[in-house]
Amino acid sequence: MNYIHIPLNLKSLTKHSPDVEVLREAENCRLTVRDLMKEERYLDAFERSVEIMRLMRSFSDYENVEFRALLVGVLYDIAELHYAIKDYKQSEKELETLFRVLEGLLAVNADRFAPYHILAMELSTRILRSRKKAIEMVVRQKALTSQLYEKVNDGVVAATDRLVDSLCKTGRLLASAGDYRASLKFFAEAIKFSKKRTGKVSRKEVKMSIEMAEVMMRIKAMRPRAARLLGAVLPHAIALETIELEEDILALLEVLSHDDGNEPRWRTFLTRITPRLAKKGRTSRNNPDTENR
């Protein structure tokens, strides 16, 4: 589980006002929630998060930016906690609310809240049970963040790295489960975000492209595309002097160059002999005496 810290600007409020005390107390409670989450005491952490929400009800202005910033942190915690205790439906509902609050804050101060919006996108890739819904969420929210990269700051960079890693992890899991086309969508989004962040093709993008090509190779109709992708990233691997990645690309291209579009010989061989072995097994069961001959 992840914890996000959103520094609050308490100087924007009247000093020693009840509102300031509410925010300070709520912030301290969130630190307790963080510690309980680390100890995997999720129910205790959830109970404390509910207490924070009760405390926030006494705040005088729900439109206040610092109030909404705190609310983002609390919603993030609750979404994580619902997921941890396997209340997936409620976790997804909290995620929707989180995005609504963040969209309003982006309109107020995009530079400040962009990293947290990207972190919420990363959260969506982890907690949305429907992978189709997850990728649609990422694509939809990406439209809101495209302009944020014009003024890249450290927070945006770190948040994007986490989002890219999460997208790749999901892509690998889907590939291992045999859902290759869904896997490719996650790798494609990961590469787009990573390129947008760096503004160039780095070692990370080359490595992700190789992984994506490997998945493509598992789909017969996409093997030509895999070859084109590998051919496109090979010059970058050479320019970056990443010998191991260059060797991986050349090895995969060699495999593809020997692919004549037919089933591999070992697979054809198995297909040919399996019915015979199955038939022999059935004959042996029906005639036990044959096993002793």
Brief descriptors of the model:
mainly alpha; elongated; 293 residues
Describe the protein in words.
This protein has helices spanning 18-38, 42-56, 65-84, 88-108, 110-127, 131-145, 154-176, 180-198, 203-216, 223-239, 243-257, 265-286. By secondary structure, it is mainly alpha-helical. Helix 5 (110-127) packs antiparallel against helix 6 and helix 10 packs antiparallel against helix 11. The model has no long low-confidence stretch (mean pLDDT 85).
Quaternary structure of the protein: single chain
Question: C-alpha Rg, in Å?
Answer: 26 Å
The poorly predicted ranges are none
Whole-number mean pLDDT: 85
Number of strands: 0
Span between N and C termini? 62 Å
What string, H for helix and E for strand, traces the elements in order? HHHHHHHHHHHH
Tally of alpha and pi helices: 12
Main sheet specs: none
Classify the secondary structure makeup into a structural class: mainly alpha
Residues in β-strands, percent: under 5%
Helix percentage range: over 70%
Outline type: elongated
Per-chain topology:
Layout: H1 18-38, H2 42-56, H3 65-84, H4 88-108, H5 110-127, H6 131-145, H7 154-176, H8 180-198, H9 203-216, H10 223-239, H11 243-257, H12 265-286
Helix pairs in contact: 1-2, 1-3, 2-3, 3-4, 3-5, 4-5, 5-6, 5-7, 6-8, 7-8, 8-9, 9-10, 9-11, 10-11
